[in-house]
Specification:
Order of helices and strands: HHEHHEEHHHHEE
Strand content: 5-15%
Structural class: mainly alpha
Distance between the termini: 75 Å
Number of helices: 8
Number of strands: 5
Strand order of the largest sheet: 1-3-2
Radius of gyration: 29 Å
Oligomer: single chain
Largest sheet: 3 strands, antiparallel
Length: 225
């Protein structure tokens, strides 16, 4: 048998018998989540890495984007790894810009993401999706299936009917409502994208044309209703 050449990934030196452990190493001896000795846990390590790779303002924005219920500046500061003063200053600035909503309570000021701004952000993101039309058609099919299954035009009609609904049917009502809301957002995104594509665009200099050009989309024929 000919000797095979060593793998390029093989170590240059191998441990001697004296350096090998007395007992064989098992999977239980390996810690796949081991962290540097400077950190007590994986969470501490992740927090330090997040802080190192982002600015204070970016972390505050990330925390407020994920906030579904209003929180105090202190709570947001703790999650965003910033001082409470820094959090309050940035949050008040974002509130002036309409990105954050604030409310005064008996225990202090609370901050949350502005619902209208968050909705516009969602619509803008959906408008840029290459699968927007497919998503619209998928949700329309889902709604049609609910209407056919329950012989109702919407979930509210089903709820006020004389029919006794079990838990699975009540879950369907909840999913039906979610699908209706999703379709309204998708349609808004489609119309927003169409409006952008129809907006007058300035022609490039030297192309032999003057004035503005209006663009259209092949998606004009999409039956939204």
């Amino acid at each position: 048998m000919t000797d095979e050449p060593p793998s390029p990934d093989a170590p240059d030196e191998f441990p001697t018998e004296e350096e090998l452990p007395d007992d064989p190493v098992t999977a239980a001896d390996v810690d796949p989540f081991g962290v540097d000795d400077d950190f007590e846990s994986v969470d501490d390590f992740a927090a330090a890495e997040w802080k190192d790779e982002t600015t204070a303002d970016e972390r505050i924005r990330a925390v407020i984007d994920g906030t579904t219920t209003p929180k105090s500046a202190g709570d947001i500061a703790e999650t965003a790894l910033v001082s409470e003063t820094k959090a309050r200053t940035t949050l008040n600035k974002l509130a002036e810009e309409g990105i954050v909503s604030s409310q005064q309570t008996g225990s202090g000021k609370l901050y949350g993401r502005d619902p209208e701004w968050h909705l516009l952000k969602q619509i803008g993101r959906l408008a840029g999706s290459d699968t927007l039309v497919d998503q619209i058609q998928r949700v329309k099919g889902e709604l049609a299936a609910y209407e056919a299954e329950y012989d109702a035009s919407d979930p509210e009609e089903l709820l006020v009917s004389d029919r006794d609904l079990d838990q699975d049917e009540l879950d369907d009502v909840s999913h039906w409502r979610t699908a209706e809301r999703e379709l309204s957002h998708l349609r808004a995104a489609y119309r927003f994208r169409e409006a952008k594509e129809r907006a007058p665009t300035v022609t490039e200099p030297g192309d032999g044309r003057t004035g503005t050009q209006t663009t259209t989309s092949a998606g004009d024929q999409l039956p939204l209703e």
